[in-house]
Specification:
- The protein folds into two domains: 8-185, no CATH class; 194-303, no CATH class.
- Helices cover 32% and strands 24% of the residues.
- Helix 7 (256-263) crosses helix 8.
- The strands form four sheets. Strands 1-2-3-7-9 form a five-stranded mixed β-sheet.
- The longest helix is centred in the first third of the chain and has 25 residues, at 8-32.
- A hairpin with a 5-residue loop joins strand 11 (225-228) and strand 12.
- It is built from nine helices and 15 strands.
- It is α+β, with helices and mostly antiparallel strands.
- The chain is globular and about 70 Å long.
- Residues 20-138 form the NERD domain.
- This is NERD domain-containing protein.
Length: 305
């Protein structure tokens, strides 16, 4: 996308925020490997649920016999100032710029409310405990609010080991049953196609095939392989990654014409041969043919075929 596009900064910010959030969740996963309790339990990550009219997402859930612990994970750079009455969550960057962010404490209160309702609808009455987890160590200033809910990820194993386990409410079978129901009712989050999410047109974007070596849109088709004009890299199947890009941007279907525009290929016959691969399924004939893309395109080993 051109850097002067009016939605460039929004998409760029969303991308980096998403990447940071994923990194934070992986950091908590790593720390939880050090938590091996003597009681039955289940740990689930990134659960997206619906209760009544509301959708809500929980980064991680730990189910124990006497309580359920919810984790909201944040990966935020800079100093953090947290205040209450009114609730404020302020990030201060290295250059001193202050930005007011949505309070994860208030986000967690909303999620706890709907998750408690979700449990009650299944006749499960169990205490809920929550933590706001900072993936990496920030400088924190906390005013007028309880700090026991705010922890760094490396503190989590000790916090969990020191939790007081009261009378058992769930046995091992019930924990397994609840974990399975959470997985079954989990609603898969699908942000694609991105052109719909951001109200874009394919024409807003630069076309071409990305070089897997230098990551520029500089690949040209040379009879039997792609060759990069910038670094000279040769790859027979670079268009597989481009099909994965189309899946994210344009959706799970495309035509020969759309593929040619997206890859800068001029021959519909060459495009047709490229689209005859293990990751596409054609329906229709000739000019009306539609190609359905497989999610298997995202498997790393397939992109290297």
């Amino acid at each position: 996308m051109p850097v002067n596009h009016d939605k460039y900064e929004k998409i760029r910010t969303d991308f980096y925020n998403g990447k940071a959030g994923f990194g934070g969740e992986k950091e908590l996963d790593y720390q939880l490997r050090d938590f091996i309790p003597p009681y039955p339990h289940a740990i689930l990550h990134d659960i997206f649920l619906k209760h009544e009219h509301a959708y809500f997402q929980i980064d991680s859930i730990l189910i124990t016999p006497s309580t359920i612990i919810l984790f909201e994970i944040k990966n935020i750079a800079g100093k953090l100032h947290i205040k209450q009455n009114p609730t404020q969550f302020i990030r201060e960057s290295v250059n001193g710029e202050r930005t007011v962010l949505r309070s994860p404490i208030e986000e967690m209160e909303r999620k706890k409310h709907y998750f408690a309702g979700w449990l009650q609808a299944r006749n499960i009455d169990i205490p809920l405990v929550d933590y706001i987890v900072f993936a990496y160590q920030n400088e924190l200033t906390i005013e007028n609010t309880s700090s026991h809910r705010l922890v760094f990820s490396y503190e989590i194993p000790n916090r969990l080991r020191n939790l007081e386990m009261k009378a058992d409410i769930l046995n091992a079978k019930q924990i397994t049953r609840l974990a399975n129901e959470l997985l079954q009712t989990h609603r898969h989050y699908d942000p694609f196609p991105l052109i719909e999410k951001y109200a874009l047109s394919i024409q807003d974007l630069a076309s071409g095939v990305t070089c897997p070596n230098c990551e520029q849109l500089t690949m040209l088709w040379r009879t039997r392989s792609w060759q990069c004009r910038a670094c000279g890299h040769i790859d027979r199947h670079a268009h597989h990654a481009t099909l994965a890009e189309w899946y994210c941007i344009g959706g799970a279907q495309l035509t020969n014409r759309q593929f040619r525009h997206f890859t800068n290929i001029h021959s519909r016959h060459i495009a047709k041969r490229m689209l005859a691969n293990p990751f596409t399924e054609m329906s229709g004939k000739k000019g009306n043919a539609i190609y359905q893309l497989s999610p298997r395109l995202f498997q790393t080993e397939n992109l290297k075929l």
